[in-house]
Design brief:
about 325 residues; alpha/beta; eight-stranded mixed beta sheet; about 20% strand; globular; disordered N terminus
Length: about 325
């Protein structure tokens, strides 16, 4: 399919519409580096970035997905915390000790990115990966990079498609109005493409844009559409229970990983060991196991497993 390409993104006054990114000129393979910001403080869920999710620290889910995608030259965790530092290294990532001012409750993610690239300037494309998106798979990274490459874009955003009717309320009058549809002509789901909503899973940014904008998005922006379940958030204990159940079905389980007992077999790691030592091959097999070609019976089984998991979680609460 043709990659989605948005208009130039106004991240700052410096942004201008630009031609195809020079990263894709010639035959040189760009150096792609992933960075996962993971500060020690967390208000909603204490120690969230290393809290155990289905037997694994939260950051391990995105580290393994990035490593097994086969597209990154390096995978880094940027942290101010000693325990996160130690766990990230055990998970296989490199570690950048970020400046304290980039790890406060009010600091932006962009400040952490700028801090990182100043210390590690050897990259052509930077990939910001959110630790709070444990349902990313290796195939997502592969498809996202392919979309950006084919569009010759400067940056890429990940989104999910949602069929939701949006409303706003005037603060003065209290009058509500529909934002994205006409109530007199309410569309049926099958007749409407829905809305693309940013899910914050990961972003690709060329070095040129990062240096010019100091922003994750800029210039020509491509878009990778992800599955709707990846819109899940981890901002409360309830969110954690829901995502934990979804991770058993939709999360990436590296070859040889041991899942908690008493859980259903996850299609995420099905038969991945059949492909030798190639990380790219392993990721491709894992992607195929995560729903491609499952058919009606397979999809029904996944939905049944998900429903059972959510019911167990509710009963235990």
């Amino acid at each position: 399919p043709k990659p989605l390409l948005l208009a130039s993104f106004p991240c700052s006054p410096k942004t201008m519409a630009a031609p195809a990114s020079p990263v894709f000129d010639g035959d040189v393979v760009p150096r792609i580096v992933a960075v996962i910001p993971a500060r020690g403080g967390s208000v909603s869920v204490p120690r969230k970035n290393i809290k155990i999710l289905q037997g694994r620290p939260l950051i391990d889910w995105v580290i393994q997905a990035a490593e097994y995608s086969g597209i990154f030259d390096e995978v880094w965790v940027s942290t101010d915390d000693d325990e996160i530092h130690m766990i990230a290294k055990k998970c296989g990532a490199k570690v950048h000790r970020r400046s304290p001012h980039t790890a406060t409750n009010t600091a932006s993610t962009e400040s952490a990115l700028v801090d990182f690239v100043k210390a590690h300037p050897n990259y052509d494309v930077l990939c910001l990966v959110q630790a709070t998106s444990p349902l990313i798979t290796p195939l997502d990274f592969q498809k996202g990079w392919d979309a950006m490459r084919r569009a010759k874009a400067d940056s890429l955003v990940t989104c999910v498609r949602a069929h939701r009717f949006l409303w706003s309320v005037d603060k003065r009058s209290g009058v509500a109005r529909a934002v994205n549809y006409d109530p007199a002509k309410r569309p049926r789901r099958q007749d409407w493409d829905g809305e693309l909503i940013e899910n914050g899973a990961f972003y690709f940014t060329t070095k040129e844009v990062m240096e010019r904008e100091e922003c994750r998005l800029g210039g020509r922006v491509a878009l990778h559409e992800m599955e709707e379940h990846t819109f899940a958030e981890l901002d409360s204990p309830t969110d954690w229970q829901i995502v934990a159940n979804m991770a058993m079905i939709h999360g990436f389980w590296p070859p040889g990983s041991v899942k908690p007992e008493g859980t259903d077999e996850s299609p995420g790691s099905a038969e991945v060991t059949i492909l030798a030592d190639s990380k790219l091959g392993l990721a491709a097999a894992a992607g195929l196991g995560m729903g491609v070609g499952l058919g009606v019976a397979g999809v029904a089984a996944l939905l049944a497993a998900a429903a059972a998991g959510l019911l167990r979680s509710k009963a235990a609460a």
